[in-house]
Each structure stands twice: as C-alpha cells, then as structure tokens.
Design brief:
single chain, about 290 residues, alpha+beta, Transferase(Phosphotransferase), domain 1, 2 domains, 3-stranded antiparallel beta sheet, 9 helices, about 40% helix, globular
Length: about 290
C-alpha cells in the first residue's frame, strides 16, 4: 500500500480514494471507501476504452456479479461508461502470492500443502457450479493472515483480452495458461487444474514451470516437460499429474483434494507469513480501520 501520487484521483464516483494498492497493465487499484463507510479495492481502467471494450466490460461485470457467491473478492459496484471506467470489489487485507514469492522467495512445504488444498477447494466449488475460472495464477491468489483466497479473474483483464466463448486467449501472455488456452480448442475445468499445477510450481521454486512470457511461450507450454525435481518430493507426483498436456488425463480438483486429505491437515499457523508481508497486511487493516 502506497500514498497517492500526483495525478491520482481523490474520488471516483461516490468513493473517496485514500491510497494506492497496486498498478498493472490493466490499470491502477486504489483503497477507497464508499459513502456508507465500506472499504473497497477500486480499479481505475488504464488506456483507451473504445465501444467494443466497454461492451465486453459490461458483459464481464454482469457475469462477475452473477457469480459473486464464489468469489473471495466479489464485485460490489462498477461504471463501465465512466471516463475512465472503474470496478470496485470487496477489500481483503492481503498480499498476492506473486509478490510474496518475488520478495521473500519460495514458500515452505507446509504452506505449499495449504496452498494446494485451498486452491483445490475453491476450484471444486467453481467446477461444481459448471464454471471455469480460466485465470488461476500467482497474481490471483491472495495471502491473508489466516487463509488463502482465490480471487476471481479480473473482469477488466478479461474484457481487454477479448476471449472467445471457448475461453481461447488470443495472446499467450501468461506462463500459467493451459496448453488448450493458447490454441483454438475447447477449454474445460481441466485448464484450471493445469494452472493450479503451474501456480504451485511457481510458489515452490520461484519460477514458472515453462519459463517466462515471450514468443516461444505457447510452444513450451504445449510441448515441454516440467522439471519436477525442483519440487518437494511430497508434491512432485501431484503437480506432475496437474501438468499433463492431455486435459482428459489431468488430475481433477477432487483428486487433488483427496491427495491432500490423505496427508492429514495442514492448517496455517498464526505468523505463517514472512514478517515484512505480515507487517504490510497489518498496515492495510489498520488503514481501513481509521479511514
């Protein structure tokens, strides 16, 4: 969380903006408060917002609201017609897995087991409702003091990518996609399981299983074999089962959860996060308390 910069808005719609939570290619996320006093994470969309983009954004906002019951950070409010458009979500104090690994290194084995369990539980709910997440990645896993949250994929990013109905992503710009997401193929719940495997691999090693983004990424995801020797022995077989190229042969969320349960519970103890991250989350919580 950072102080507002010159040029940042003081208010967006009926929300009062107080701090920066982060920025990316799709826009900047602010900590804001509604007129009723509720803290929210408000994303201000960056760049051109043409008619086609706004139409996709409206559709994605409607979809996100319809599925809000399964999101750790559901959409509360949005204005796709504003200049620039914005989306407000429930604010949960926490740090993205991507940032935690980048700043503090790979996670210890007990936390990895908990990560696998939480992701499997979340995806079991999504898939049980007949839906596919399509965006499981370290940036969509929020580490909180007492649990991990799988955040629904950004409606802004989804609208910007312009996915077709099968879920094909026109540009292979994420190291955590499944092979079928980089090709014109049907995308099912199995794609989420491949992404689960890639996400846990990153959390365990500090790098994606098939390298970073670039022109050869899609080919590597589709053809290269992951090096499982970098993983803890207790997880290598399971993650390998998630990273199978054939969607029909991959482990399911239920199978992953059964595997974890056979190992016994792996609760997150108080203070499981590295001290710098715990301090930042505490600062976020304190900031919302005094807003």
């Amino acid at each position: 969380m950072e102080q507002l910069e010159r040029g940042d808005p003081q208010a967006v719609g009926s929300y009062t903006v107080s701090a920066r939570l982060g920025a990316g290619s799709a826009g900047t996320v602010y900590l804001a408060r509604s007129a009723a006093g509720r803290p929210v994470a408000l994303k201000l969309v960056r760049g051109e917002a043409d008619h086609a983009f706004r139409a996709r954004l409206r559709a994605e906002i409607a979809n996100a609201r319809a599925a809000s019951w399964m999101s750790g950070t559901p959409v509360l409010d949005a204005d796709p017609e504003a200049e620039p458009p914005w989306v407000a979500r429930v604010f949960v104090p926490g740090v993205a897995l991507s940032r935690a690994v980048a700043e503090c290194g790979p996670l210890p084995e007990p936390v990895l087991i908990a990560l696998v369990r939480e992701l499997a539980v979340a995806l079991l709910t999504v898939h049980g409702a007949g839906m596919v997440h399509r965006g499981v990645a370290p940036g969509k896993v929020l580490l909180a003091p007492d649990r991990l949250h799988l955040v629904e994929r950004s409606v802004v990013a989804r609208a910007a990518l312009g996915e077709d109905r099968a879920g094909y992503v026109n540009a292979a710009n994420s190291p955590f996609l499944a092979p079928e997401q980089t090709q014109v193929r049907s995308v099912t719940s199995a794609a989420d399981m491949f992404s689960l495997g890639s996400t846990v691999y990153y959390a365990a090693t500090g790098r994606p299983p098939f390298g970073g983004i670039g022109p050869e990424l899609a080919a590597r995801i589709s053809k290269a074999s992951p090096v499982l020797g970098f993983l803890p022995p207790s997880l290598a077989e399971l993650i390998g089962a998630c990273l199978v190229k054939d969607p029909n042969a991959r482990a399911t969320a239920r199978q992953v959860l059964d595997f974890v349960h056979r190992r016994g519970p792996a609760p997150l103890a108080e203070g499981w996060l590295p001290p710098p991250l715990s301090a930042e989350i505490a600062a976020q919580a304190a900031a919302t308390a005094v807003m």
